[in-house]
Amino acid sequence: MYVIIVGCGRVGAELAKILEKEGHNVVVVDKNPDSFKRLGSTFNGLTIVGNGFTLETLKEAGIEKADALCAVTNGDNTNIMTAQVAKKIFNVPKVIARIYDPQRADIYRSLGIYTVSGTVLFASLIRDKLIEPHFTGYLIETKELGVLEFNAHEEIVGKSVKEINLPGEFLVVTLIKKKTGTIIPTEETVIEKGDVLIAIVKTSSLKRIKSLYKLQ
Q: What does the pLDDT look like over 28-38, one tens digit per residue?
Protein backbone atom coordinates (compact mmCIF):
# COMPACT_ATOMS: atom_id res chain seq x y z
CA MET A 1 0.00 0.00 0.00
CA TYR A 2 0.96 3.63 -0.50
CA VAL A 3 0.18 5.32 2.82
CA ILE A 4 0.43 8.96 3.83
CA ILE A 5 0.72 9.70 7.55
CA VAL A 6 0.09 13.27 8.62
CA GLY A 7 1.62 13.93 12.02
CA CYS A 8 4.93 12.53 13.24
CA GLY A 9 4.28 12.45 16.95
CA ARG A 10 4.70 9.25 18.93
CA VAL A 11 1.68 7.58 17.33
CA GLY A 12 2.45 8.71 13.78
CA ALA A 13 6.10 7.75 14.01
CA GLU A 14 5.35 4.32 15.44
CA LEU A 15 2.70 3.66 12.80
CA ALA A 16 5.11 4.74 10.06
CA LYS A 17 7.85 2.41 11.30
CA ILE A 18 5.46 -0.54 11.56
CA LEU A 19 4.09 -0.04 8.05
CA GLU A 20 7.52 0.56 6.54
CA LYS A 21 8.87 -2.65 8.08
CA GLU A 22 5.94 -4.52 6.56
CA GLY A 23 7.03 -3.34 3.13
CA HIS A 24 4.50 -0.58 2.50
CA ASN A 25 5.38 2.71 0.83
CA VAL A 26 5.12 5.31 3.58
CA VAL A 27 5.17 9.11 3.39
CA VAL A 28 5.21 11.09 6.64
CA VAL A 29 4.15 14.74 6.74
CA ASP A 30 4.78 17.11 9.64
CA LYS A 31 5.26 20.86 9.91
CA ASN A 32 8.12 20.38 12.40
CA PRO A 33 11.21 18.83 10.76
CA ASP A 34 12.62 17.84 14.17
CA SER A 35 9.70 15.44 14.64
CA PHE A 36 11.17 13.12 12.00
CA LYS A 37 13.92 12.17 14.47
CA ARG A 38 11.34 9.84 16.03
CA LEU A 39 11.48 7.69 12.90
CA GLY A 40 15.06 6.64 13.55
CA SER A 41 17.98 6.26 11.18
CA THR A 42 16.71 3.04 9.56
CA PHE A 43 13.43 4.50 8.26
CA ASN A 44 13.39 4.32 4.46
CA GLY A 45 10.13 6.14 3.79
CA LEU A 46 9.69 9.69 2.54
CA THR A 47 9.38 12.69 4.89
CA ILE A 48 7.86 16.03 3.91
CA VAL A 49 7.77 19.26 5.91
CA GLY A 50 4.42 21.03 5.64
CA ASN A 51 0.79 21.27 6.77
CA GLY A 52 -1.02 18.07 5.94
CA PHE A 53 -4.27 19.73 4.92
CA THR A 54 -2.83 21.95 2.17
CA LEU A 55 -3.29 20.78 -1.39
CA GLU A 56 0.33 21.54 -2.30
CA THR A 57 1.74 19.45 0.54
CA LEU A 58 -0.60 16.54 -0.12
CA LYS A 59 0.20 16.57 -3.84
CA GLU A 60 3.92 16.57 -2.99
CA ALA A 61 3.25 13.56 -0.79
CA GLY A 62 1.70 11.76 -3.77
CA ILE A 63 -1.89 11.75 -2.60
CA GLU A 64 -3.20 11.07 -6.12
CA LYS A 65 -1.78 7.56 -5.88
CA ALA A 66 -2.34 7.01 -2.16
CA ASP A 67 -4.24 3.95 -0.98
CA ALA A 68 -4.71 5.37 2.50
CA LEU A 69 -4.19 8.48 4.60
CA CYS A 70 -3.95 8.63 8.38
CA ALA A 71 -4.26 12.01 10.10
CA VAL A 72 -2.73 11.63 13.56
CA THR A 73 -1.58 15.10 14.62
CA ASN A 74 -2.29 16.39 18.13
CA GLY A 75 -5.19 18.55 16.92
CA ASP A 76 -8.71 17.31 16.14
CA ASN A 77 -9.45 20.15 13.74
CA THR A 78 -6.26 19.59 11.76
CA ASN A 79 -6.94 15.87 11.54
CA ILE A 80 -10.50 16.34 10.35
CA MET A 81 -9.58 19.02 7.81
CA THR A 82 -6.84 16.77 6.43
CA ALA A 83 -9.17 13.78 6.32
CA GLN A 84 -11.89 15.73 4.54
CA VAL A 85 -9.48 17.02 1.89
CA ALA A 86 -8.17 13.50 1.30
CA LYS A 87 -11.66 12.00 1.13
CA LYS A 88 -13.64 14.64 -0.71
CA ILE A 89 -11.08 16.16 -3.08
CA PHE A 90 -8.66 13.32 -3.77
CA ASN A 91 -10.99 10.34 -3.19
CA VAL A 92 -8.44 8.41 -1.14
CA PRO A 93 -9.97 4.94 -0.53
CA LYS A 94 -9.07 4.66 3.15
CA VAL A 95 -9.01 7.72 5.40
CA ILE A 96 -8.59 7.58 9.17
CA ALA A 97 -8.52 10.50 11.58
CA ARG A 98 -7.37 10.45 15.16
CA ILE A 99 -9.58 12.48 17.49
CA TYR A 100 -9.32 13.40 21.16
CA ASP A 101 -12.92 14.52 21.67
CA PRO A 102 -15.13 11.40 21.45
CA GLN A 103 -18.29 13.55 21.24
CA ARG A 104 -17.26 14.54 17.72
CA ALA A 105 -16.95 10.97 16.48
CA ASP A 106 -20.54 10.58 15.26
CA ILE A 107 -20.37 13.87 13.35
CA TYR A 108 -17.20 12.85 11.56
CA ARG A 109 -18.51 9.39 10.74
CA SER A 110 -21.53 11.03 9.11
CA LEU A 111 -19.05 12.74 6.80
CA GLY A 112 -17.68 9.36 5.77
CA ILE A 113 -14.51 9.67 7.85
CA TYR A 114 -13.43 6.80 10.04
CA THR A 115 -12.18 8.01 13.42
CA VAL A 116 -10.11 6.49 16.20
CA SER A 117 -10.39 8.04 19.65
CA GLY A 118 -7.52 7.31 22.02
CA THR A 119 -9.64 8.82 24.80
CA VAL A 120 -12.33 6.17 24.42
CA LEU A 121 -9.84 3.38 23.75
CA PHE A 122 -7.74 3.94 26.86
CA ALA A 123 -10.76 4.63 29.07
CA SER A 124 -12.29 1.33 27.92
CA LEU A 125 -9.06 -0.60 28.49
CA ILE A 126 -8.66 0.81 32.00
CA ARG A 127 -12.30 0.07 32.75
CA ASP A 128 -11.81 -3.52 31.60
CA LYS A 129 -8.84 -4.06 33.88
CA LEU A 130 -10.74 -2.60 36.82
CA ILE A 131 -14.10 -4.30 36.35
CA GLU A 132 -13.59 -7.29 34.02
CA PRO A 133 -10.03 -8.64 34.35
CA HIS A 134 -10.66 -11.36 31.73
CA PHE A 135 -12.33 -8.98 29.29
CA THR A 136 -9.56 -7.42 27.20
CA GLY A 137 -11.46 -4.84 25.14
CA TYR A 138 -14.23 -4.07 22.71
CA LEU A 139 -13.76 -5.32 19.15
CA ILE A 140 -16.07 -2.88 17.45
CA GLU A 141 -17.23 0.63 18.27
CA THR A 142 -20.79 -0.48 19.01
CA LYS A 143 -19.32 -2.54 21.88
CA GLU A 144 -21.31 -5.62 20.87
CA LEU A 145 -18.28 -7.94 20.88
CA GLY A 146 -15.26 -8.32 23.10
CA VAL A 147 -12.33 -10.62 23.81
CA LEU A 148 -12.02 -12.99 26.75
CA GLU A 149 -8.72 -14.50 27.83
CA PHE A 150 -8.57 -17.14 30.54
CA ASN A 151 -6.76 -20.29 31.69
CA ALA A 152 -8.32 -23.68 31.00
CA HIS A 153 -9.85 -25.13 34.16
CA GLU A 154 -10.58 -28.74 35.05
CA GLU A 155 -14.11 -28.83 33.66
CA ILE A 156 -13.06 -27.98 30.10
CA VAL A 157 -9.72 -29.80 29.97
CA GLY A 158 -10.09 -32.77 27.62
CA LYS A 159 -12.97 -31.24 25.70
CA SER A 160 -12.80 -30.15 22.08
CA VAL A 161 -13.19 -26.52 21.05
CA LYS A 162 -16.49 -27.46 19.39
CA GLU A 163 -17.83 -28.72 22.72
CA ILE A 164 -17.31 -25.41 24.51
CA ASN A 165 -18.19 -22.98 21.71
CA LEU A 166 -21.63 -21.42 22.00
CA PRO A 167 -22.99 -20.41 18.57
CA GLY A 168 -23.76 -16.71 18.44
CA GLU A 169 -22.31 -16.03 21.88
CA PHE A 170 -18.84 -17.47 22.43
CA LEU A 171 -16.15 -18.61 19.98
CA VAL A 172 -12.63 -19.79 20.83
CA VAL A 173 -10.28 -18.29 18.23
CA THR A 174 -6.83 -18.86 19.74
CA LEU A 175 -5.13 -21.29 22.10
CA ILE A 176 -1.79 -20.64 23.76
CA LYS A 177 -0.25 -24.03 24.52
CA LYS A 178 2.83 -24.64 26.63
CA LYS A 179 4.30 -27.20 24.24
CA THR A 180 3.44 -25.83 20.81
CA GLY A 181 2.85 -22.12 21.45
CA THR A 182 0.04 -20.06 19.96
CA ILE A 183 -2.30 -21.79 17.52
CA ILE A 184 -5.58 -21.13 15.72
CA PRO A 185 -7.62 -24.17 16.75
CA THR A 186 -10.02 -26.23 14.70
CA GLU A 187 -13.27 -27.46 16.17
CA GLU A 188 -11.58 -30.79 16.89
CA THR A 189 -8.64 -29.27 18.82
CA VAL A 190 -8.58 -30.65 22.36
CA ILE A 191 -8.07 -28.30 25.28
CA GLU A 192 -5.23 -29.37 27.55
CA LYS A 193 -4.18 -28.50 31.06
CA GLY A 194 -2.21 -25.26 31.07
CA ASP A 195 -3.82 -23.91 27.88
CA VAL A 196 -4.80 -20.26 27.69
CA LEU A 197 -7.98 -19.62 25.72
CA ILE A 198 -8.71 -16.44 23.78
CA ALA A 199 -12.31 -16.16 22.64
CA ILE A 200 -14.71 -13.72 21.01
CA VAL A 201 -17.75 -13.11 23.20
CA LYS A 202 -21.06 -11.33 22.72
CA THR A 203 -20.99 -8.50 25.26
CA SER A 204 -24.60 -9.12 26.24
CA SER A 205 -23.66 -12.73 27.08
CA LEU A 206 -20.59 -11.83 29.13
CA LYS A 207 -22.19 -12.44 32.53
CA ARG A 208 -23.53 -15.84 31.43
CA ILE A 209 -20.21 -16.90 29.93
CA LYS A 210 -18.28 -15.88 33.03
CA SER A 211 -20.64 -17.91 35.20
CA LEU A 212 -20.57 -20.91 32.85
CA TYR A 213 -16.77 -21.03 32.70
CA LYS A 214 -16.22 -19.92 36.30
CA LEU A 215 -14.39 -16.69 35.56
CA GLN A 216 -14.07 -14.40 38.57
A: 999 999 999 99
